[in-house]
Amino acid sequence: MILLTGFEPFGGETVNPSWEAARQAAAILADEGVAAVAVELPCVFGASIDVLADAVSAHQPQLVLCVGQAGGRAEVSLERVAINVDDARIPDNAGNQPVDDPVRDGGPAAYFSTLPLKRSLQALTEADLPAAVSQTAGTYVCNHVFYGLMDLLADGNGDARGGFIHVPFSTGQARAHGASGMSIGEMARALVVIARTSADAGADLRIAAGAEH
Questions:
Q1: What is the dihedral of CA 74, 189, 158, 41, to 10 degrees?
Q2: I need a labelling partner for 72 at 20 to 30 A (CA). Which of 116, 136, 171, 178 fits?
Q3: pTM for the complete prediction?
Q4: How many helices (H) and strands (E) does the chain have?
Q5: pLDDT category, 63, cuts 50, 70, 90?
Q6: Looking at residue 159, what is its pLDDT?
Q7: Cα separation of 103 and 123, whole Å?
Q8: 90-100, pLDDT tens digit by residue?
Q9: pLDDT over threshold 70, residue 106
Q10: Rounded to 10 degrees, what is the CA torsion of 101, 104, 105, 110?
Q11: Could you report how far apart the first and last alpha carbons of the chain are, in Å?
């Protein structure tokens, strides 16, 4: 079973492409005979992890791809690390705005994704889909969920693998904001590539995909 999650709209937007892409990707995988389900998460600190935990418990996935929107980025971002801090520049959809709070009191400082990031990067590049390994998922609800996911998987969920992917603005959002964007169809195709690669791969590739700053 593959679980994909996306977020409800936030920050004044009327759509969140992460949810639309996750839903489309789950449908594509299901049409191919792969057990897959998509779940929408609230853009709310705390509640988002609760909904994620319920979905993991209900579906017992072997692979979890959590997806969020990173407006302004030009490519699909394969997130490497989740950090144990909530520091919100804007309130979430429930009006919460934590500053310098831990995601989990006493938790590890950080978790690394267990997805084959570089193998996925190679597969996306070969599919002509713009992608990069990202060294930060921010400190908003996306990082909150990423950390919560890896905390869940570290706490006795078998051999399940998981991680977080950021997608750009949709093409419509991009036009409105004068920023980079990608069609939701392309985003969904990218998530399918990542899901297939992660389900089939063993060890990750050892290729350079770091950053100077």
A1: 70
A2: 116
A3: 0.96
A4: 6, 10
A5: very high
A6: 84
A7: 32
A8: 999 999 999 99
A9: yes
A10: -90
A11: 37
